[in-house]
Write a structure and sequence with these properties.
The radius of gyration is 16 Å and the shape is globular. The strands form two sheets. The protein has a five-stranded parallel sheet, sandwiched between helices. Strands 3-4-5 form a three-stranded antiparallel sheet, with helices on one face. Helix 3 packs parallel to helix 5. The protein is α/β, with parallel strands linked by helices and about 220 residues long.
Length: about 220
């Protein structure tokens, strides 16, 4: 069974997907984390991120796995390292390369294998799993998404002002929605959830309810 959750940064998709997977015993796959893992590999191997062919070559041979809510690259736990802002910007650049996106789609499908999964990202229901059993698109007003991002960064010891986070999100949204390959958009047949006034608990309950209604639970 595949549950695909898409949405912009700060929409609540990552936390909701992780908790839903935990409660139902499904595998959780964070597609954005796979691009960040690639960024760490690019930095580790001292590859020029503007060298498209080298980055694409590297992306075809990544050893990434998810276990116990953590992500591993070549056996190393990189769960916290992928949240670094430099890594995030590097991941954004790498994700614009067509070959990278094609390789990462293969990787994400391989990670899902034949298991029950909750997979979240920005092209899950449109490109990676267009035939998912349940497709959800989460969104929220910009200010609340920025506030969530600020709280997330604070957990990692980063205290960034709200105004600059809002500007960063505007730029990220524009990049995600206008990119040539796999742009962020609402998947066909997706259920749209506005999370502006929802708590994480309410988001999780809403998604689990939909899964049960479709007899996927």
């Amino acid at each position: 069974m595949i549950v695909a959750i898409d949405g912009p940064a700060g929409s609540g998709k990552s936390t909701t997907a992780r908790f839903v997977a935990e409660k139902l015993g499904y595998k959780y796959i964070d597609s954005g984390a796979t691009y960040r893992a690639l960024a760490i590999a690019v930095k580790r191997d001292k590859i020029d991120p503007n060298n498209k062919s080298e980055v694409e070559r590297l992306s075809a041979n990544l050893n990434i796995n998810f276990r116990g809510g953590k992500i591993f690259l070549d056996g190393d736990d990189i769960t916290n390292a992928i949240r670094d802002e430099e890594i995030g910007k590097l991941a954004s650049l790498c994700s614009t390369y067509k070959g990278v996106r094609e390789n990462m789609v293969k990787l994400q499908r391989k990670l899902a294998n034949t298991q029950n999964v909750v997979c979240e990202g920005r092209d899950i229901g449109t490109v990676v799993f267009p035939d998912a059993d349940l497709k959800i698109y989460m969104d929220a007003e910009l200010w609340i998404r920025a506030l969530r991002r600020k709280r997330e960064l604070f957990k990692f010891g980063i205290d960034k002002d709200l105004k600059s986070i809002i500007e960063d999100l505007k730029i990220r949204d524009e990049q995600d929605k206008s990119r040539k390959h796999s742009p962020l958009k609402v998947p066909v047949d997706a259920v749209v959830i506005d999370t502006t006034n929802l708590s994480i608990k309410e988001e999780v309950e809403k998604v689990i309810e939909m899964i049960k209604e479709r007899n996927l639970g």
